[in-house]
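Notebook entry, cofactor series.
This is the third protein in the set we're modelling with a bound small molecule. For this one the ligand is ZSD. I'm keeping the input format identical across the series so the outputs can be compared line by line later. Sequence and SMILES below, as received.
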Amino acid sequence: MYGFAQIALALATFLSTTAASPLRKSGNFSVVQKLNTQFVRSGPAAYARAFKKFNKPMPHDLAVATGNDGSVTASPEDAYDSEYLCPVSIDGQTLALDFDTGSADLWVFSTSLPSSEQKGHTLFDPSKSTNWKALSGYKWNITYGDGSGASGTVGTDVVTVGGTSVSGQAVEIATKVSSAFVSDTANDGLLGLAFSSINTVTPKAQHTFFDTAKSSLSSPVFTADLKHRQLPGTYDFGTIDSSKYTGTITYIDVDTANGFWEFTGSGYAVGSGSFVSSSIDAIADTGTTLIYVPDAVVTAYYKQVSGASYDSSQGGYTFPCSATLPNLTLGIGSYHAVVPGQYINYSPASGSKCFGGVQSDSGIGFSIYGDVFLKSQFVIFDGSSTPRLGFAAK
Ligand SMILES: Cc1noc(C)c1CN(C)Cc1cc2n(n1)CCN(c1cc(N)ncn1)C2
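Returned structure with ligand:
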């Protein structure tokens, strides 16, 4: 029987003979370089790499020449895809922001908040930013459709999203936030992607990140490829990645009068039912979780779900969690966008009932095609001189 010592000696001997023999001790040596003929030289690209390496904003012309395009992950904030959060760097300080095509303010949790409202959030500290420029006397105050909101002061800084970097971007510092935001500790603020006309900064409305970046993008577009309860999706700026969708893209005109990505839907179908043509005034809103549509659509939908009913205690339609939900088709021009039924089981409500991802738009004034819809599609937000929306299956 071998003792510990013998085993240890045997192991040491084994290792010493099989370990890679150390470099032969010798004098100096030289390595012959081999040119990488695969590498396509580009002066601008080399120049641009220097700015990106040191997180410095690129001169506009260089950004245009090298394509200041970028892609950023959009991660579900919770198990129900209530919102999607993206890493955004402000002068090197990275926060998780909710990209919201339904509003136009870029605002962040900050060190200027009362400490009771800071807990659990990543805070932007302007005093630590070398590029921060306060806008003296400028203020902002936003209230969202669900009654939540925030307010504070304003400055400009270098903002980077994925590979897209801009300087002089208005960053709205929160000095007050509502309780819904305080308790949503994964969320460090919002990055508005609606039209700058509805930015709330006074005395002078500020540009959204997309508007600031637009002229330095290869194409004045951004796309949303949100996912259902799985790996993160992406927002891309400046390009349309054809690997992210199938079939063709259907474009539809946008009415920017209200500052939203607003369009007229062409109708709906429930499950395998026939398509009902009807004009639906709707906005594409990544900052809203659910689908809010006219009562006719809601009634038709839940009529096909046994056990579904309007539950006033929940403030919406619920159904047995065991229900098999029909798909909902929403018409975009001649394109029929299909929302899988399983996407419409939003979350458990109470007991064995679940809360529907399709609810009434009554009282809103327009329909909202929120995340439950948008995550079933590849969506192009085209900010060209005639803004339009594009939709494709994926
Ligand atoms: C958790 C959780 N669950 O669902 C949400 C949302 C959260 C986040 N949480 C409660 C805080 C919160 C509240 C809002 N947001 N985040 C995002 C902006 N809001 C919008 C945007 C817009 N375009 N339209 C309407 N409201 C309201």
